[in-house]
Fold this protein.
Amino acid sequence: MRFWRLAVPPLLLLALWQVVDGPAALAALRGVDPLLWLAALALLNVQILASALRWRLTAGFLGQSLGRGQAVAEYYLATLGNMVLPGGVLGDAGRAVRAQSGVGLAVAAQAVMIERLAGQVALFALLLPALALLPGIAAGPVLALGVLLGAGAVLVVAGPGWARRFGAQMRRAWLSPGALPRQLALSAVILAANIGAFALCSAAVGAPLGALALVLVPLALLAMLIPLSVGGWGLREGAAGLLWPLAGATSEAGIAASIAFGLAALASGLPGLLVPLLRR
């Protein structure tokens, strides 16, 4: 069952508490600057709104009509679902199912997948050059990421029929006339909002990252993609605890910053609770 993942976050956080100075991490979290945390929360809401618009844009190029209000409401609900349900993608699956009217589940699912994939592509596009800020460890990650991206491109171009069909839909969504500039603009806003929110949370616990936020935050966010947790909890904190010392901060500060970011992300999805109530 997927719900065994519910046990992963508390177990990982408990392990981190034992490995690092747990009370110091808790003290940093208690001392969070509320204004900086609220600014991070605002940025995460900007990210949700821009993501909803990117989904609507992507769906439109695939022949699926989504109203702006529908896209925003569904994205808030999906964000909350991704944060509290095991696997981190059940919220997205739900919005694909609910939005399938008129086009079918296949197209609706492709629109959701391509929209989310755009976010990962943007993250890698920033991370690859940003790793140059860490020259001592850059070569290995750059090579690994390059191999993964190359393998994905080969699969889309020369893989099985389903992969080629998905690749064709990606080209429609991203390379149709007028698509690419809007896709790039929205992806840039979303990525900047995510990184900015995490950096603000880190500053809020007394650990400003400076320019290294461009590499440390994406690496911490990538840990959330591992489907072994709920909302990335535990995995993200572990990554931050390992990475933050590269910026001269403590592991405890990294864990506190990650928890503050996780709480802000959870709070940003709470308006999704209103969606079912309003629809009734």
Observations:
- Residues 31-279 form one domain.
